[in-house]
Amino acid sequence: MSAVATRAEDRPIAAERAAAPRKRRRRGRKGGLLTVYFWLMMIYTVVPIVFMIIYGFNRAPAERVTFAWQGFTLEWYKHLFDLSDLTAALITSLEIAVLSGLIATALGTPMALAMSRYRYRGRGATDLVVFTDIAAPSVVVGASLLSFFILLNIPRGFGTILITHVAFNIAFVVVTVRARLAGVDTSLEEAAQDLGATPWVTFWRVTLPLLMPGVISAFLLSFALSIDDFIITSFVNGQTLTFPLWIWGAVKVGIPPQVFVMGTLIFVGGVLIAVANVVASRRQRVQTIAVNAPTRVPREG
Amino acid sequence: MEQHVRSDHPVLSLGLRKRLAPYLLSFPGGLWLLVFFLVPLVAILSVSLQTGNPIKGYALTWHFSEYVDAVRTYHAQFVRSFIYGSISTVLSLVLMYPIAYWIAFYGGRHKSTYLLLVLLPFFVSFLIRTLAWQFILADQGIVLGTLKSWHFLPQSLHVLSTPYAVVAGLTYNELPFMALPIYVALEKIDPSVIEAAADLYANRTQRFLRVILPLSSAGVYAGILLIFVTNTGDYVSASLLGGPSTTMIGNIIQTQYLENSNYPMASALSTILMAAMLIGMYLYARTFGTRSIEEFV
């Protein structure tokens, strides 16, 4: 049972608790209307997703997605990799997502550590840069990087896409890892140091393992942001095509159904990883609560 | 890229090491952000003040004429972008606040699962999502086509290529970004505060307006900022769902940069957009602090 849920159950106010049965019915009804709204919104939210999944199974004689339903087929799953340039674009996207995720996590995690564990000159400025990096409009970030690469005569391609993706992912890594650090008790690290561990050993044996869930979420977030980025990438790609850029190029001539199939597979993969993450964090929370009951509740999300 | 390996310095005293540690830790990442985020922002300012063409090259001439031209030619697109950005932001706030509220207060044991449901669209490439809407909202698509064939709607009715379609697309794309920060803010509220309000005879409405809403305001503002900035600069929804009359400033910047290679003009437009956003962000940071947004992303 999660601690958060316990908190939610504590919620009935004192007066309501006294008249529990009657009040509970009222509360239920109130929640009921909102509940209906929640599920209606969820239906609206999944409409395009369902469309994508279904139309990956539609027969399409012209090999383009059409609105008319022409019958069920698994053809596009069988010929998933037939369009070699689409496949190449997907592979490029995956490579950039993994590499930029790894580099950004490696660079951002120490930054998060510095920002949450030390007071130093320049911390405020770093904070502001991270904030701006997250909030800057994509089109400006893309345009400014393109200007920069043009000024320096750097040829655009895989390398510039990778550099760019790392640049926008670092900020998200810093934020994610820092959120995790806020929930990590420093007493364990202090204990390690008291027992004679060097800062280096303390970091690898105590801090990093405690941080690991945050680091993994940061990597996954980077991966997701990178693989879906279109606007910024469209400025710095040169001749290299990523998956979203390939789709953009295909819009005018029509979308091959393989695009929807790949979208579906990415979707299913992402959801599976997210579910695994939820299950793992729930299990961990139960352990944390069992070990040190009165400590602060780890934040969700 | 160069790799900066953090090494231990056994020669250094503990005190010095402790003082150096944060700099060593943030150096590689900070350098990356400096070179590939901050410097380019300055570079774009420089390009906007240059004159020349792609063949002969450019020279920095400090001509501000591009800015005058930019504002004169494209003020309509600027205004439109801000209007679309504002409407879609308000719409997503109105749509998602109840969702975040419901998950935070009625989610019970399954909060994570409901949150995941809200986040589902993020697992599909946003280009594919927008394309799907293009198919769904097409004149003879599943919604309009069906309603028209039943004569509920006139044949001449269009949704695509109208401002409604663009705003709907913008709103849809960023919904989870609104729900998440509000949820986090609501989740942090100490239930005893709400109990206290009830003990002081605040009714349901008062409890919401005077206690819950103010306490969740940081999340609301974070969502507003993120979505407004993203949507005002977007050009995908306007391209795929809109028409010639719905062009946004992002479309213009993209065309000027990538199709016309008119770098000074495109840079001037980007600089204006960035300046407007920076002023907004500065005011935001002054009012709410930068932490409030970072906590919620």
Task: Write a brief structural summary.
Chain A has helices at residues 3-9, 14-18, 20-55, 75-78, 84-117, 123-135, 138-151, 158-182, 187-194, 199-228, 231-236, 243-250, 257-291.
Mean pLDDT of chain A: 83
> What's the CATH class label of one domain in chain A?
Mainly Alpha
CATH fold node name of the largest domain in chain B: MetI-like fold
| Alpha carbon gyration radius of chain A | 24 Å
Q: Give the overall silhouette of chain A.
A: globular
DSSP helix fraction of chain B? over 70%
Give unreliable regions of chain A as ranges. Answer: 1-29, 293-301
Strand content of chain A: under 5%
Structural class of chain B: mainly alpha
State the CATH architecture of one domain in chain A.
Orthogonal Bundle
CATH superfamily annotation of the largest domain in chain B: MetI-like
How many structural domains of chain B?
A: 2
Distance between the termini of chain B: 28 Å
* CATH T-level topology of one domain in chain A: MetI-like fold
Number of strands of chain B: 2
- Low-confidence sequence ranges of chain B: 1-10
CATH class of the largest domain in chain B: Mainly Alpha
**How many alpha or pi helices of chain A?**
13
Oligomeric status: heterodimer
